[in-house]
Design brief:
This protein is of the alpha/beta class and 359 residues long. It has 3 domains: 227 residues, Metallo-dependent phosphatases (Purple Acid Phosphatase, chain A, domain 2), CATH 3.60.21; 79 residues, no CATH class; 41 residues, no CATH class. It contains 10 helices and 16 strands. The chain has a 6-stranded mixed beta sheet with strand order 4-5-6-7-9-8, with no helix packed on it. It has a 5-stranded mixed beta sheet with strand order 3-2-1-10-11, with helices on one face. It is elongated, with a radius of gyration of 29 Å.
Length: 359
């Protein structure tokens, strides 16, 4: 039996909303994922790419990784793939920051190439392992369809597998991938994606989960254990806030009221309130965004409060006048449809100009 701990997409150096604190959060999330993995005593710890958010990581992030990986030496076989974020545009593998980590013998990766094949003995059995860094999809499909492992136990790790599960060749005991940041595991087809170790892009990740995947691979089949992997920062997503058809004051009250549903925390959470609905331009103009932010910040003391304006503003409708045109009727129709503030006043004096009496 070979035990694999599978994590992915740590994006060290990313900082949500450009918050400096999130750089440290990303490092701590990654460390937490590694520590949780090691508690399962895996033979292989595989990170399926995007370890760094940029192919030119900051020293702080690089040193953090080196320190952490030094502590894993001789304890686990550490595999890290090059993701699209770990290399400069143009699939230039030799320019990835992972190359230095390989030179230091801290990780196994794909070197200057997109693909690498390994054969390692675990528990007395040879395990054939194929590593595929980020590459163009035709090249990926070529590898996927041409590799035929010789060993009974074979593993396939790629940064991204875009092939539909039902089209995967049945040669491999486990297909591990990353790239997308939400957890997904198909035990029928033996393909797994842990999700990112921290929140990188909240709008894509808010409805998903991040999990550590532990797979015990043997000839008799795989056994899976998954473990929830929460971000070290608390996130509060306020969804379902709908302001359709509300008047200006109702909107402001409703947004404040939504914030009231949260309780203050010591942990300085990130609060994201997504506001949906259909409103008229006048209402939109009178939303007191900065006052609502101040209210929420005072009440909840978050690290960051974000109001996502996900509403639509209905543009003014064209005015339609009934035919045949008649000056008096047309003026009245125009006033009514544009909700003119002086409508009543004008309506009162209008008959005077058309031979009638003032009402
Ligand atoms: Mn990624």
């Amino acid at each position: 039996m070979v035990r694999i701990a599978h994590i992915s997409d740590s994006h060290l150096g990313s900082s949500l909303f450009q918050l400096t604190e999130r750089r440290e959060d990303a490092r701590q999330c990654f460390k937490k994922a590694v520590e949780m993995s090691m508690k399962h005593s895996p033979d292989i710890l595989v990170h399926t790419g995007d370890l760094f958010h940029s192919h030119m990581p900051q020293n702080d992030d690089m040193n953090f990784v080196i320190e952490l990986f030094k502590g894993l030496k001789d304890k686990v076989h550490l595999i890290v793939l090059q993701g699209n974020h770990d290399q400069p545009y143009g699939y230039r593998y030799s320019l990835s920051p992972l190359r230095g980590l390989e030179t230091m013998d801290l990780i196994t990766s794909t070197g200057d190439d997109p693909h690498r094949k390994l054969a390692e003995v675990y528990d007395g059995k040879t395990v054939e392992i194929h590593l595929l860094s980020w590459m163009p999809s035709p090249q990926f499909n070529h590898y996927l369809n041409s590799i035929e492992p010789k060993e009974k136990l074979a593993l396939f790790f790629a940064h991204h597998i875009h092939t539909p599960t039902e089209n995967l060749p049945v040669h491999f005991n486990y297909y591990g991938c990353g790239h997308k940041h939400n957890h997904w595991l198909d035990e029928e087809y033996d393909i797994g994606r842990p999700g990112s170790t921290c929140f990188v892009d909240w709008s894509r990740e808010m409805r998903g989960r991040k999990k550590l995947i532990i797979v015990d691979v043997d000839n008799s089949g795989n056994e899976y254990t998954v473990q929830q992997l929460n971000d070290v920062r608390e996130f509060k997503f306020l969804t379902g806030v709908d302001i359709t058809g509300m008047k200006p004051e109702q909107v402001n009250d409703s947004l404040r009221h939504s914030l009231d549903s949260l309780s203050p925390k010591k942990t300085k959470p990130i609060i994201i309130m997504q506001v949906n609905g259909l409103i008229d331009p006048e209402t939109e103009r009178s939303i007191k965004r900065s006052e609502i932010l101040k209210y929420g910040e005072k009440k909840l003391d978050p690290l960051f409060l974000h109001i996502e304006p996900n509403w639509s503003s209905v543009a003014a409708r064209p005015v339609s006048l009934s035919e045949p045109l008649d000056v008096e009727t047309s003026i009245l129709e125009y006033l009514r449809q544009t909700k003119d503030k002086q409508a009543t006043q004008i309506q009162r004096i209008l008959p005077k100009y058309f031979g009638g009496e003032i009402r």
